[in-house]
From TrEMBL:
Stored SUPFAM superfamilies: FMN-linked oxidoreductases
Protein name per its UniProtKB record: 2,4-dienoyl-CoA reductase [NADPH]
Residue intervals of the NADH:flavin oxidoreductase/NADH oxidase N-terminal domain: 7-150
Top-level class of the enzyme under EC nomenclature: oxidoreductase
The keyword Cell inner membrane appears for this protein: no
Classification via InterPro entries: Aldolase_TIM, NADH:flavin_oxidoreductase, OxRdtase_FMN_N
Claim: Hydrolase is one of the keywords in the record: no
The organism of origin for this protein: Klebsiella pneumoniae IS43
Pfam families named in the record: Oxidored_FMN
GO MF annotation: an example: metal ion binding
Keyword tags: Flavoprotein, FMN, Iron, Iron-sulfur, Metal-binding, Oxidoreductase
Length: 153
């Protein structure tokens, strides 16, 4: 590995030490349960990557404010405390194999899953239509932006 002498060296970032510099970026698995919890299949998917030696695993995009932030029927959710136990179990499972864990917070904006909106208009930063399915959103108010931020803090 002379081309990559530091690849398997530890790296400390703001107090968090990665066992190596192999990082798994967020990738949608579409394996969450229909109500947005971590499924057993999804837990095993991530655990295999941790067992393989990945230093940092970033969990796929997670809905912060259902239904407006949701972009699929099997997307993880974190907008309610009921989701914490399975996310905690996932994190502990990955830590058991020495992997550090991060998560990609997501608000779908214009790409919000129309079926889940039940006729409501998607929320976004502008009225630019979704390239995914043509939804035309409305810009969020300041209050709606603050609400979305509060959901993740």
């Amino acid at each position: 590995m002379s081309h990559y002498p530091h690849l398997f060296s530890p790296l400390t970032i703001n107090g968090m030490t990665l066992k190596n510099r192999i990082i798994m970026p967020p990738m949608g698995t579409n394996m969450a349960t229909l109500n947005g919890e971590v499924s057993q299949e999804q837990l095993e998917y991530y655990e295999l990557r941790a067992k393989g030696g990945t230093g940092l695993i970033t969990i796929e995009n997670i809905c912060i404010d259902f239904p407006f932030a949701s972009n699929g029927t099997t997307q993880l959710r974190i907008d309610n405390d009921q989701y914490i136990p399975r996310l905690f179990k996932l994190t502990e499972t990955l830590h058991k194999h020495g992997a550090c864990v991060s998560i990609q917070l997501n608000h779908a904006g214009a790409s919000a899953y129309a079926y889940r909106l039940e006729g409501q208009t998607p929320l976004s930063s502008s009225t630019t239509p979704s390239k995914k399915h043509g939804n035309i959103p409305r810009p969020m108010t300041h209050e709606e932006i603050y609400h979305a931020v509060e959901k993740i803090w």
